Amino acid sequence: MNFDQETADRIAANLLQIKAIKLNNTQPFVWASGLRSPIYCDNRITLSYPKIRTYIRQMMSKAITEHFGNVDVIAGVATAGIPQGVLVAQELGLPFAYVRSSAKDHGLTNLIEGVVSSGQTVVVIEDLVSTGKSSLQAVEALRAIGAKVAGMVAIFSYGLPIAEQNFTAANCKLITLSDYDALIGKAAEEEFISKKDEASLRDWRKDPKEWSDNH
């Protein structure tokens, strides 16, 4: 769920403005999964814009306070969730840790970097949620050491049905600052895309695989 519509619209406008979101129906982007997609999101770019970076930090912190209450630790998902998580932890005056995608193959072979203890309440920070699979691996790693994961806060979600199913199955609450509907609405409103492109983009979200197969 979005934190609120005003935030969702403002974040969407910001991402479009700085080209953190790229939309292209005629030359789709290829995701790591092999799926072809008309949208590519790189929220790392927000870190280069202090005003936008500050707004994201403030809204993430506000979302945590309002939805999750008292929290012991902020944990970022490697790699893109790390800088956002550090900023939020600093804003809230909380300890920070991060979760690797896989354990190191040398040294202490850590999966979780930083101090997280059994029984502590953790909120996970992510920059982007697609299917939710990699994000939820971090949740599972924290739960495996006995941490209580209150939920996750992300900058943006594609709003794919599979992600909703995955988060429901994992019993993990997801709060996003913005999402696909807000993005497409803002892109159409500010004429980043045509009406034809808007229809195609909405079709992609309904069935990404079918769209990919046909493009």
The CATH architecture would be: 3-Layer(aba) Sandwich
Beta-strand residue fraction: 15-25%
Major β-sheet annotation = 6 strands, mixed
User: What ranges have pLDDT less than 50 throughout 5 or more consecutive residues?
Assistant: none
- Category from helices, strands and their pairing: alpha/beta
Q: Tell me the name of the CATH class.
A: Alpha Beta
The coarse overall form would be globular
- Number of H- or I-type helical stretches: 8
Provide structural commentary.
With 215 residues, this protein is of the alpha/beta class. The protein has a single domain, classed as 3-Layer(aba) Sandwich (Rossmann fold), CATH 3.40.50. It contains eight helices and ten strands. A six-stranded mixed β-sheet has the order 7-6-5-8-9-10, sandwiched between helices. The chain has a two-stranded antiparallel sheet with strand order 1-4. The longest helix has 19 residues, at 50-68. The chain is globular, with a radius of gyration of 17 Å. It starts with a helix and ends with a helix.
